[in-house]
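Now for my pick.
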Amino acid sequence: MSVSSHRPSFAHTYPSMPQDAEELARDLFERARPSDSFDDLKRRAAFNRQGAGRLRHWIRAAQAIAAERHLRQP
């Protein structure tokens, strides 16, 4: 059995991520990487550590932006 088969899935890794945070991460990623797709990144994250790290980066960036927007709302 390979090491990658023991890695948690995207949904398991980010179970409480709001849908809007994923949408924001998708939007940010696809604007920055027009020749790639967020769904492809999610698939790569399931199979290699580099892809998983990149996915975590984009999710954390989206969560930080969403939190900042939430704080700015009256």
User: Anything to note?
Assistant: The chain is about 70% helix and 0% strand. Residues 26 and 38 are 5 Å apart (CA to CA). Residues 1-9 have pLDDT under 50 and may be disordered. Helices lie at 10-13, 19-32, 38-45, 49-72.
